[in-house]
User: Fold this.
Amino acid sequence: MLHIYCPHCQELREEEEFHCSGEAHIARPLDPDNCTDAEWGEYIFFRKNPRGIQHEMWYHTTGCRKFFNVTRDTQTYEIKEVYKIGEQPKVVAEG
Amino acid sequence: MSEATAPEKEVTNVAVMNQLPSGDIRAESPLHHAELDKLAARNPRAGGVILRELKLLGHLTLRGSQDNQSFMDGCAAVFGIALPTKPLTSVEKGSVSIRWMSPDEWLVVVPGDQAFEIERSLRAAIEGHFQVVNGSGGQTLIELSGPNAVDVLKKSTVLDLHPSQFPVGKVAGSVFAKATAVVRRSGEDTWELVVRRSFADYIWLWLQDASREYGLVVKA
Assistant:
């Protein structure tokens, strides 16, 4: 069970209250009508799925109903940091 | 999709209607079928948990930016008290209580017959981008009190309810049983749950079961 800090409620809550919405910082092609199938496919289907540091989006479903980002180690499940949408992570994977 | 965008002024002229039934139409709370008043009449006098439905109140959901001065000032003027900006807090003045729901959302509970008037006052007082929705029919308030009320809540939610973590006045939305509820501590031993209409019956059944070992007293 993860103990997750919600940056909007500003306190730690149980994982049960949240929903993980997958990888963060995925940019939608600016002009979907004129991008290539490869670009669109990349956007829709392909994810990094790293072993180690991952940035992911979480949703505080039963609380404030806001999205935010979490940097988490996929091997240890350790949450390195929590930051709001629009902000950049401080902890990033090396190399 | 319409190409034309409505002029700024019309945004505040959205259709609002009084949702309060009048004449022969009877208003029924989400727990109307549970006949709490009949249960209250033949109840035991003592028990560790006292349950009461605060029914047919006006529930207004307010959304707006804390940076919009007109929004913050307008709300303060209409309610006579400023919106709580500190996360997970609530304020109360007379018959009005305001719960912080998220940084740009508040739930205002008012007497049922004042909801329409307050909604209109807000629309008149506030300029700019904001939203007020009367959701009175969609949810209800259940009040739990008594020395064992907190024990019933501990069975139902993952929130930390210790007084050091959950002081009087705190509000938190969380999972409740297998549904959700917005929990507010309104007194040392008094708790208020905002539950959805569709979950009200389930939560009522759950609360009866969870409070059986302490003795449940239903108040009308």
